[in-house]
Amino acid sequence: MIWDELTSPIIDSLDRDIPVLLPIAATEQHGPHLPLATDRMIGWHFAHSVHLKIPKQILILPPVAVGCSNHHMDFPGTLTVSHEAFATYVEEVLESVLAHDFNNLVILNSHGGNQGIGQVILERLGPEVNHLVLVTWWKLASEALAKISETGPGGVGHACEFETSLMLHIAPHLVNKDLIEPGDNQKDLWLGRS
Ligand SMILES: [Zn+2]
Q: For a Cys staple, 111 with which of 23, 39, 46, 143, CB 3.0–4.6 Å?
């Protein structure tokens, strides 16, 4: 179920053990060929796929669309918030979920720059919650991704093979195929950033 598509009485009627999932993402440059919304669209794609598969067993919150992207601010179009503002916002959204007695929370991350502060959120909010997990998609799927990668190390890096492939699947009209640069992968980006 999608949290904000439901009514208040329906939320009130739900089993409070249902996991509640919050997608956290970013709005930032993804090279010349992918849109600024890439991380948000990929995170939402995965979250919505879970909803389609097990609609009665998951509640998906509205995504956090702007994350910690200070390291991309040299590129026009990037939006960012400070780590502290991000943590406060995410924690207060999740505390409102807790206030309605849902106590099993999943944070689904699709942006490399949110990983460090995500861990801090986990440590700060964890004691208040029955179950709280932080999942970053390319880490969760790292073994499967390594098996299907056509570009090897770096394929899951920023605006590289997997983000480009996912966007070709999710929103092909937003991918500027003519501007995709072949380039070499960088090993230090392997599983590290998005
Ligand atoms: Zn990305």
A: 39
